[in-house]
Amino acid sequence: MALAALALFLLALTCANFYLARASRHAVHWNSSNIHLRREGYTLKVNVNDYLDIYCPHYNVSQRGVAEQYVLYMVSYRGYRTCDPQLGFKRWECNRPHAPHAPIKFSEKFQRYSAFSLGYEFHVGHEYYYISTPTHHHGRSCLRLRVYVCCSTAADADDEAQPTEPDYTLRPNMKIDDLGNALCWSGSQWILEHWVYKPLGIHHCRGIMHHMRSL
Length: 215
Known about the structure:
This protein is of the alpha+beta class. It has 2 domains: 2-20 and 154-214, no CATH class; 25-149, Immunoglobulin-like (Sandwich). Helix content is 26%, strand content 26%. The chain contains 5 helices and 10 strands; from the N terminus they run αββββαββββααββα. It has helices at 2-20, 77-82, 154-161, 176-185, 202-214; strands spanning 25-29, 43-46, 51-55, 70-75, 88-94, 105-109, 127-134, 143-149, 188-191, 196-199. The strands form 3 sheets. The protein has a 5-stranded mixed beta sheet. Strands 1-3-6 form a 3-stranded mixed beta sheet, with no helix packed on it. Interacts with EPHA8; activates EPHA8.
C-alpha cells in the first residue's frame, strides 16, 4: 500500500510538470538601480499561475559601502500611491545582502485557489501592489510595483468548473482508488521547489489513474 501510494504521488508530480512548463516566470531585481521601481505607474502583466521572482540586493563580501536592505509589503491602491506600508501587510524581508553564492529570491504564484487557509488568492482582471521601505537608512525612498493579473489558461478552466478543497491526509483503511480520487479531485499537487500547490488538469489525471488501476 505504501509503495502504491508513493508511486501515485510521484506520478502526479510528473503529470504536473507538463502544466508547470506552461507558466511564465517574471524576474524583478528589487534595488534602487532598477529605474522601473522608482517611478509610479510601472505595471507588470502576468497570467494566472505565472510566478513573480523577486531578487533581493546582493553584494560580494569584498564590496564596501552601504548594502541595500528592504522590507516588502503588499498594500492597497492607496498604500501604493502614498507608499504607506501601514495600508497592507509585510510580504518579504531582504535582509541578507551578503548571502553566499547568490541573491535571496522570493516567489509569488498568481493562483486563483490556495490550498492553504492563509494562502493568498489572486483574481483575473485585478491589480496588486507591492512597495518597500529601506532598512539600511531612514530616508523616504520608495520602490513600488503594480501587477496586473490578466488571463486564464485552458488548463485552469477545467479546475474552475468545480473548485474543491484538497484532501491530502491518508486516513486508515484508505483504498488505492480513494487515494487516486483524492489526488485528482483535489486538483492540486505538491511542488517541492516552492512549497506551494499547483493545479492539475482533472481530466488528464483521471486518465492516468484509470490506466494505473488497469495494470
